[in-house]
Amino acid sequence: MAVTRLKRKVRKNKTRAAQRKEAMKRLLATPIIRNVDIKQLKASGKLE
């Protein structure tokens, strides 16, 4: 019995993996905001 490769499935799996990796990179690239000074934001007018 010959071995056949499911090319569409392989392509779909590779695409899903690439999308997952890109999503992780995108999420990790956003900086985490810590120690926000509310008074300073109010004074600058960004928080209303």
Q: How does the helix and strand content classify structurally? A: mainly alpha
Number of helices: 2
Average predicted local confidence, pLDDT: 85
Low-confidence parts: none
Summary of the model, kept short:
The protein has 48 residues and is mainly α.
Keywords:
mainly alpha, 48 residues, single chain, rod-shaped
Describe the structure.
The longest helix has 23 residues, at 7-29. This protein has one domain. By secondary structure, it is mainly α. It contains 2 helices and no strands.
Topology:
Layout (H helix, E strand, L loop, with lengths): L6 H23 L8 H7 L4
